[in-house]
Amino acid sequence: MSQSLDTTYISLKQVRKAYKIGSETISIFDGMSLDIQRGEFLAIMGPSGSGKSTLLNLLAGIEQPDGGELTIDGRRIDLLGEAARASWRAHHLGIVFQFYNLLSMLTVAENVELPLLLKPLSRSERRSRVTTVLDLVGLAGRERQYPNSMSGGQQQRIGIARAIVADPGFLLCDEPTGDLDRRSADEVLKMLSFLNQSLGKTIVMVTHDPQAAACAGRTLQLDKGYLLQDRRVA
Ligand code: ADP
Ligand code: MG
């Protein structure tokens, strides 16, 4: 087998996706092909409406392609049913959202613990994992606080802790710095770089922030569902 076949982690082949609005069909992707290597940190940029969120939703198995193939880590995601995709997501994928998506009535520890409730782990194993990831994102000792009492940067770090607590190989980030001031944004980016470089996570991040894109080893420019540019940093 060739080197590239060995290391390709995510492969989209001639993927098509359209949305129906009333009697009108709007085509977003009409034969999108893209290979992402294991351990890559990829930034997706492009104007509003160019298909960035749709691409993330396809990669997350939240949306299904209308045609073509999506293979992740050797598994044909486009052939899985809804329940199988949800289970695949729970085991392999972490998602970081622009507006954190934390539950305000739960403590920091309870928010981070959520993905672990789908796993056969004891309470003490869950606790220990939560403590480990909170430590990793610089929030040790904050377990019993509530997210709303914390800054945006801290809330996004809780979001990152929740995304990695089940130890997925793959992280999807939708505008992870979009709601943050420069300093908090840089902290979050440093953390994502660490997860990529030191822990080997494959990261796909949608961003408008040129400094965020500069952290990635590869940037894609999307325009109206087309790949305008695909650039790797040496
Ligand atoms: P971006 O994230 O780059 O702004 P999106 O992927 O959200 O772009 O959207 C691409 C196009 O698809 C837009 O024209 C948008 O209006 C349309 N679209 C996205 N999601 C849906 C949906 N669930 N139903 C109908 N149209 C959608
Ligand atoms: Mg979007």
Overview in brief:
This protein has helices spanning 3-7, 52-59, 82-92, 108-113, 123-136, 152-164, 182-197, 210-215, and strands at residues 8-21, 24-37, 41-45, 67-72, 75-76, 93-96, 170-174, 202-206, 218-223, 226-232. It has 234 residues and is an alpha/beta fold. β7, α7 (182-197) and β8 form a beta-alpha-beta unit.
Write a concise keyword list for the protein shown above.
six-stranded mixed beta sheet, 34% helix, Rossmann fold, disordered N terminus, alpha/beta, 29% strand, 234 residues, 8 helices, binds adenosine-5'-diphosphate, four-stranded antiparallel beta sheet, binds magnesium ion
- Unique ligands: adenosine-5'-diphosphate, magnesium ion
Rg from alpha-carbon coordinates: 18 Å
For CATH, the homologous superfamily is named as P-loop containing nucleotide triphosphate hydrolases
Written as H for each helix and E for each strand, in order along the chain, the element string is HEEEHEEHEHHHEHEHEE
- Major sheet characteristics: 6 strands, mixed
Specify the CATH architecture: 3-Layer(aba) Sandwich
Helix share, percent: 25-40%
* Cα-to-Cα separation, first versus last residue: 25 Å
What do we call the CATH topology?
Rossmann fold
Instruction: List the total number of helices.
Output: 8
- What top-tier CATH class fits best? Alpha Beta
**Gross geometry:** globular
Q: What's the assembly state of these chains?
A: single chain
What's the count of strands? 10
Content-based structural category: alpha/beta
Low-confidence stretches: 1-5
Mean pLDDT score: 94
Overall tally of domains: 1
Strand content: 25-35%
